[in-house]
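ok so i was messing around last nite and threw this chain in just to see what happens. nothing serious, just curious
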Amino acid sequence: MDKMRKHEPDSRNFVGGFARGLAVIEAFGNASEPLSLAAVAERAGVDRAVARRMLLTLVELGFAIQSNKTFQLTPRIMRLGYAFVSQAGLDGLVRPLLEALSNRLGESVSVSVLDDLEAVSVFHVTSPQRKTGFLLREGSRWPAYLMASGRVLLAALPDEEVARRFARMDLHASTPKTLTDPRSLLQAVRQAREHGYALVNEELETGWASVSVPVRDRAGRVVASLNTNTTLARQSPEQLVANGVPLLSEAAADLGRILPDRAFG
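result:
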């Protein structure tokens, strides 16, 4: 179903062509290889003629390239993401705090927000001590059920809404330990709500664990999550919680105090 048309409001101010262009850009999310015209049209929920015009416009503007019968975005598309993080000086406020936290933890750290069914990384700092292994990138999108950051963000919602979102997700296993049963996942979200953090142990990638805490604004609303991960060769899940949660919680409180109102929408 056309996602954009489904949510298209009955308004003179709504620009359908612009909305379909955004849908075409979003079609490349989580694509590990260039996409054909047909694949873009299907992912964006538009017909092929519309997808073709949008893609050729992106090529003309330098936001995409065409090779034979496939398309892929160029690094120039990151300008759109940078426009978000640079608003109100967010990058200058957040990055120094994350760099200090990364140095204290000895691990990479990231800030994520919830976008419907996905956790989206909006800031990421790679540990200078450990630059290999599982890394998030700014702009990375992952199913919320699979991520410690996603479960912390879902924990801010009522159980009924969490259950509705799980019903709309493709709950597949990435490893033998991945939780895919909606009832088990809801229990994991409830535990995150109760404990104030979420731990994911080898559910996303074998040999890796991650822990995340909520970032609350000055009104106490959860607006983001703060996350770190490690290999089990360096720390056990219990050590990650004991060592990581206090530092993450302290940094999350600092982050919540310095963020402008409605920084993440």
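not much to say yet. The chain has a mean pLDDT of 86.
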